[in-house]
C-alpha cells in the first residue's frame, strides 16, 4: 500500500540584498528545510554579497512585467520583499507583478530609527535636498547614502567627503574632495566614534534606513552633538508586512 503523498515544497522568491534578507534565508533553511524551495534575488550592485542558502539569481527582472513572467515561468507560490527601505522601485514592481500573477506577497520591513531628544537631525525629503544643505553645516562630511546616490553630491566642491562603501567602486567617485573607507556592518559604537574623531567630521549625511547594523553612527553623532542630515524614508508599498523574521516564518507556515 503506497505511503502518504509528500507535500510539494512551496517555491518562494525572496527579494534580498539586505542583512535582514540574508538572515531570513538562513532561518528558512533551518526552520523549513523541506517545506520551501527558496530563491534569493539580488540586484547585483555589490560585488561581494553576503552568502545565502538556496538558489541565488543576480540582476533585474525587466520591470513589473518581467517579474510577472518570472513568477509564472518558475511557478513561484509566494514572494517576500526584504529589500532596502529605499528600494522603492523594486517594491512597486513586486506589488504590481504579484497582483497580476495572483501570488501572495509579504514585506519584511526594517524597523525605523527613533528620534532621540538630543539628536540634531535636519530632515530632508530626498538626496538632492541633502546635497543642497550639506555645505551650510560643515566642511567635512561623512556621506553614508549608498553608491547609487553619490552623484548627487558631485556639484558640492567646497566639502571634503568621507565615503564608506562595502567594496571599491568600479570607477572613480564623482567628488572633488573625498576619502574612501571600506567596511560592512554591523559597526560598533567604538568604531563609529573613532571614525568621527579620526576624520574630524562636522556633519553626517545618511538615509533613514533604520535597523541595527548602522545605528551606532547616530549614537556617536549624538554624543558630540553633531548635525545629521537625514533623508526621509519613502512610504512602504501597500500590502501585508511584518518587522521580524519570526513573523515572516509564521507567514510561510500559514501558507501566505
Describe this protein with a few key phrases.
single chain; 256 residues; Rossmann fold; 2 domains; six-stranded parallel sheet; 7 helices; 12 strands; 23% strand; disordered N terminus
Account of the protein in words:
- The protein has 7 helices and 12 strands.
- The chain is an alpha/beta fold.
- It folds into 2 domains: 10-111 and 235-254, NAD(P)-binding Rossmann-like Domain (Rossmann fold, 3-Layer(aba) Sandwich); 120-231, Rossmann fold, CATH 3.40.50.
- Strands 3-2-1-4-5-12 form a 6-stranded parallel β-sheet, with helices on both faces.
- Helix 2 packs across helix 3 and helix 5 packs across helix 6.
- The two termini are 33 Å apart.
Secondary-structure map with pairings?
Layout: E1 10-15, H1 19-31, E2 36-42, E3 55-58, H2 63-73, E4 78-81, H3 88-101, E5 105-108, E6 120-124, H4 127-137, E7 140-144, E8 160-165, E9 178-182, H5 189-198, E10 203-207, H6 216-223, E11 227-231, E12 241-242, H7 245-254
Parallel strand pairs: 1-2, 1-4, 2-3, 4-5, 5-12, 6-11, 7-8, 7-10, 8-9, 10-11
Helix pairs in contact: 2-3, 5-6
Amino acid at each position: 500500500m503506497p505511503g502518504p503523498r509528500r507535500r510539494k515544497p512551496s517555491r518562494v522568491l525572496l527579494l534580498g540584498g539586505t542583512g535582514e534578507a540574508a538572515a531570513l534565508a538562513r532561518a528558512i533553511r533551518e526552520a523549513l528545510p523541506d517545506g520551501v524551495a527558496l530563491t534569493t534575488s539580488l540586484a547585483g550592485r555589490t560585488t561581494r554579497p553576503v552568502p545565502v542558502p538556496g538558489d541565488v539569481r543576480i540582476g533585474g527582472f525587466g520591470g513589473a512585467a518581467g517579474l510577472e513572467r518570472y513568477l509564472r515561468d518558475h511557478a513561484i507560490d509566494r514572494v517576500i520583499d526584504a529589500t532596502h527601505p529605499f528600494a522603492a522601485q523594486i517594491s512597486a514592481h513586486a506589488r504590481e507583478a504579484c497582483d497580476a500573477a495572483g501570488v501572495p506577497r509579504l514585506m519584511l520591513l526594517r524597523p525605523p530609527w527613533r528620534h532621540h531628544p538630543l539628536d540634531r537631525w535636519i530632515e530632508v525629503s530626498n538626496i538632492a535636498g541633502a546635497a543642497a544643505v550639506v555645505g551650510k553645516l560643515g566642511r567635512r562630511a561623512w556621506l553614508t547614502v549608498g553608491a547609487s546616490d553619490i552623484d548627487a553630491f558631485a556639484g558640492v566642491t567646497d566639502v571634503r567627503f568621507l565615503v564608506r562603501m562595502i567594496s571599491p567602486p568600479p570607477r572613480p567617485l564623482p567628488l572633488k574632495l573625498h576619502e574612501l573607507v571600506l567596511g560592512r556592518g554591523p559597526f560598533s559604537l567604538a568604531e563609529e566614534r573613532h571614525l568621527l574623531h579620526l576624520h574630524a567630521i562636522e556633519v553626517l549625511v545618511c538615509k533613514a534606513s533604520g535597523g541595527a547594523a548602522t545605528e551606532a553612527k547616530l549614537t556617536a553623532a549624538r554624543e558630540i552633538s553633531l548635525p545629521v542630515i537625514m533623508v526621509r524614508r519613502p512610504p512602504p508599498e501597500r500590502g501585508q508586512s511584518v518587522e521580524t523574521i519570526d513573523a515572516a516564518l509564521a507567514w510561510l507556515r500559514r501558507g501566505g
